[in-house]
Write a structure and sequence with these properties.
The chain is an alpha/beta fold. The protein has 3 domains: 146 residues, HUPs (Rossmann fold), CATH 3.40.50.620; 41 residues; 127 residues, no CATH class. The strands form 2 sheets. A 5-stranded parallel beta sheet has the order 3-2-1-4-5, sandwiched between helices. A 3-stranded antiparallel beta sheet has the order 6-8-7, with helices on one face. Keywords: Cell membrane, Membrane, Transmembrane, Transmembrane helix.
């Protein structure tokens, strides 16, 4: 097991299948170190840019980096929990004044940032590869180590280049799949009669045996899952209330003699990531009368709105914040609205 002894840590980030686990490792170790020393720990997450940026310019890569750092901040806040005073976080984009090509280039900007901010350990994600081509990590680690800064590699399972369809399953995964299948069967049956209980158990067992090594293979984290389920239970009545309000508003428009509709298709980038949060937000928008999700491409939403009020409600970001609350926690709900983000982007241009 790698032992993280420093309380001031630098974590370079890039898109990878192990980034989430690396963030969790760095935050958990920082909390442990703060408890051991009685002093505050600090974790800096940085995104190295491979291209040189001129003053005031913004490119697709800078937007990608900002989006990734925001996502990492949300994960870190979730992992920190109630330990606000024990650990602080910083995020930054680095390497903006030069072109980064080689492992030595990346190591130089990391070392410079670490020294400016008095950081003495760099924790690398095993999947860190900012260029996405030739592997840079081993020579980069050596270059950073030569500068006198301690180097750690997060002890997380590496991502397979060609993941197997059938993976090694555990008893917890079997029981989870059985519980989900059994609950879904009883929900469709709408009855707890003995016949339904028995046939449901048989059906769930067959499904679990057949799909044991295929479905629900992601490691289950009970505490995080329980929190998300609890927050989702709060989200459901909120969504129902929003649906009721939208129904009343649309009913007024339909019954009004002038039929004051103003249909328009709008687009915006939502601050949610991964399939489940994006799907939840897209479905919530569609379930709310007056708005219909037409298309989703990663975080980019195309939505048909029926009235000006429905557009205002959409760009107010209420549903987006609620979905972020469900999947990322209370702190993640305090963000700019889609309208405010769009205005900020227009000002930067």
């Amino acid at each position: 097991m790698v032992s993280l002894t420093s309380s001031r840590v630098l974590v370079p980030v890039s898109e990878s299948g192990t980034l989430r686990s690396t963030v969790e490792f760095a935050v958990r170790r920082a909390i442990e170190r703060a408890e051991e020393t009685g002093s505050q720990s600090s974790v800096h997450f940085v995104y190295p840019l491979s291209e040189r940026i001129t003053v005031g310019s913004e490119t697709e890569e800078t937007q990608t980096g900002q989006s990734l750092l925001e996502r990492v901040s949300v994960w870190a806040e979730e992992d920190r929990g109630d330990n606000d005073e024990a650990v602080t976080f910083e995020t930054a984009t680095i390497g903006t004044r030069q072109y980064l090509f080689s492992p030595g280039d990346y190591a130089d900007v990391l070392v410079q940032y670490a020294r400016r901010n008095d950081l003495d350990t760099v924790v690398f994600d095993p999947g860190f590869n900012p260029l996405g081509t030739a592997p840079l990590l081993p020579p980069m680690e050596n270059e950073v180590r030569r500068s006198g800064i301690e180097v750690e590699e997060a002890p997380v399972q590496r991502e397979r280049r060609n993941p197997l369809l059938v993976q090694r399953a555990t008893l917890a995964q079997f029981l989870s799949l059985f519980a989900v299948s059994y609950g879904f069967y009883l929900l469709l049956a709408g009855s707890f009669a003995v016949f339904e209980l028995v046939t449901g158990a048989i059906s769930a067992a067959i499904v679990s045996v057949a799909l044991w090594g295929i479905s629900l293979t992601t490691p289950l984290k009970p505490v995080r899952t329980a929190k998300q389920i609890g927050r989702f239970a709060l989200y459901v009545p909120y969504l129902l209330w929003e649906i009721v309000k939208a129904n009343v508003s649309i009913a007024y428009v339909v019954l009004h003699p002038d039929l004051p509709i103003d249909p328009e298709v709008v687009e915006f980038d939502a601050a949610v990531w991964s399939a489940l949060p994006v799907t939840t937000l897209a479905n919530s928008i569609t379930l709310t009368p007056g708005t219909l999700t037409v298309d989703v491409s990663r975080q980019h939403f195309t939505v048909h709105t029926l009235t000006g009020d429905s557009r205002d409600d959409l760009f107010s970001g209420a549903l987006e914040r609620a979905v972020r609350f469900v999947f990322y926690g209370r702190a993640a709900a305090r963000i700019q609205t889609p309208l405010e983000r769009r205005q900020a982007e227009d000002e930067e241009r």
